[in-house]
Structures are given as C-alpha cells and as structure tokens.
Design goal:
With 130 residues, this protein is α/β, with parallel strands linked by helices. The chain contains seven helices and five strands.
Length: 130
Amino acid sequence: MRYLADSVALIRHLRKHRRLGQQARKILQEADAEEHTIFVSAVSLMEILYLAQAKKITVDLAEVMTLISNSPNYTLVPIDADVVLAAATVDDAPELHDRILVGTAKHLQVPILTSDQIITQSSHVQTVWK
C-alpha cells in the first residue's frame, strides 16, 4: 500500500520511539522491508528542519533525507500546483502545514500516518496511527 507520513511519524520511526502508534510502526517497518511506499511531503521536511534547528528534536534534516534517498520505498512529494489546489479544498484544517499535508494525501489518494488531532478529524482524508 501507499501512505503519507507526517513529520512526527518519521521522527518517531527514526528514533524507535515508544509513542509511535502501533499500526503506524508496523507500516513503517514494513516499508523499510520494501512492502509499502511512504510519501514524505516537502512541508514535513521544512517542519523537521525548523524543529531540529530549534533543538526540539534529535533527528535532523540530513538523517531524513538519507532515509528518503537510500530507500526506494520512500518518496519525496513537492508542494506543487496540484497539491496547492487540493489543499485549497480542505476546509477543516486551519493551519497551513496541516492543509498542505491533507491536500497532499488527498491529491495522492493515500491515508496519512499521523496522530495529529486536527488531521485525524478531517473529513478529507483517512488516517492511521493506533
């Protein structure tokens, strides 16, 4: 299957954090075993860069880029016109980065690996976590 992973899912997966949802953990481990495709939005990279520079996380952008570059099962998704147009239809996620994530998943027609309450409550996308 194909999924979009948000920044929290990626960070917790890379750190093998115990608070990564059980279903999300299984999917990401299976992706590492080349059983699923994981999409990563450019907006998640920007969020990881910001959090790493602010010293709020121990994962840095280079580590995430290495994961994406070294695995055929991780694909970077740019914020292009199609994603922006899909995000423009999202009316239940007020934060710009959440709208872009939901718009990306909507455009790709994939569920999001996320625990974000705003995104999990969106009527525009399916989410996976627990």
